[in-house]
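User: structure tokens for this one?
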Amino acid sequence: MIGSCAFAPESSAQAVKHKVADDAASPRLMYHGLIPGRDTMPKVREALGEPAKQSRFYSYKMYYPAEGRSGMWDVVHMHGNSPDAGLANISAASIPTGYETGAKIRAALGEPEYVLRMPTWTLLDYSEQGVRFTLSPEGKVHGVAYVPHGFRRVPDGERALVDLSRLREGEQPKPRNVASLGGLTVGVAEVDISPQGKDWIGHPYTVHDPLLARIAVFANDDLAVALAGADLFGFGFFEGNVIRAAVEKAGIDHTIIGSSHNHAAPDTLGVYGHYPTDYIEYIQKQIIDGIATAAKNAQPVKEFRTASKELPMDGARVMDLFRNARNPGVMDPTISVLQAIGNDGDPITTIVNFACHVESLEKGARDISADFPGYMCEQIRRDGGGQPVFLNGAVGGMISGDNLGRTHESSKEMGHALAKKVKELSGIAQAPAEFTFSAERRALHIPLTNPSFIDRYAESPRGLYRGRVITDMTIVRLGEAQLLTLPGELLPEVSFEILEHMDGFPRVLVGLGNDQIGYFVPPYDFRNDYYEETVSVGPVGATQVRDMAIRMLGGKR
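Assistant:
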């Protein structure tokens, strides 16, 4: 089967790798005179001295205290820790003199190549000049990303403005009248999907903490929808359809299996050379049984609440949590919560959605773990959130962790920090003024043009149909919330164009939803030497996913 993270060195997936020619003119704005894509480790240490802390997180990370901003960090990303390691990029919370506001930036650098307006922050992109800025609603700079200059990320002629500032986020006004839920019920379950046989996954292993599928089944007299968040690297369309077909016979109309994209889980796609047949069959059986159990455990939903909030983008990232390793500063920092409340006033389930690669543990280790979503979900349960269900988002890009280390302790810290955010959001969650419960599923055929994938598909149980990958997308409307599946890893740039057409609250994009066919890169940013492209079906995939999403949302594409 086909997945991501298989064909390139790890460092290339986690640090900007553009090279800047030695004779190229220096950019106007630099971080302490450093030039990403040209300078090497000796120059970095000469300019900055020894870092306050450092770690290997795929690429090498060096932390320096932000100037004038207590408790914040500037992070220097290197291509390793050798003397000749190159400087990849810098994500800084320090504010450069003369560039404190959007007006000053425009006066110094001219109009940006690209502007992204979000509800609580704005991105000004000057990629050709090697810098991107994140600004507060008042127009004050609170983050700067320094990247190799001389390359436009968004070519002239493409969209120069994406305005999502109208989208709702944060605390919402209470409705005068709360909508009737029309007999809505929810049942929950949790099943262990850790491998059981010693020969199941092609190499020795130990289970540090169990892999789980966390399930919530929503139903009324007309419709039943199962949401299963699984601690899996990925789960293919072919394998997932076995589950969906089985539970349809038991009365479940639609099933969403959302893999967390957990890199500390076994390879369930076969991208590393071993397709774990016995393990796949076990996962299928466990999730089928779990959905059946959840359906039997159905309880009336007294109240359905939702909340959504953007996390701060200081330092051109969500500090200590998320970052974009491919295009620093370009991301959606939103975390969303959906809660079903029982007759006793307590949550039956808490569904959590945000976008981040689940890879905070050392790659290649034999310790199987659910990584930070596992620790997050444990804490949500302890906090009284009922049965947690984590659904990942548009993780392409690479939207990855900003945490310091790659240890279980660091993973736990990240999970607990996210659980704290969920608890805060739960405190402001509101019931909708209108309640809708519906679901729709549409087939999607994507031409496969990546030569590396063609041979692998030919050898997989899935196969191709006339040179196209067969997959699908599902949209669920639950209250005012919209949940839309993505059959792989969508770059945030593409997700912005989908979010423009979503009027729900919250807007939940379910990455790796019912499939994992690699990255979806916008055609204008498709590169011949970058990691994400090597594990993509081809440049048309992102366009097709975007257009199908817009049609399903009622648009005209």
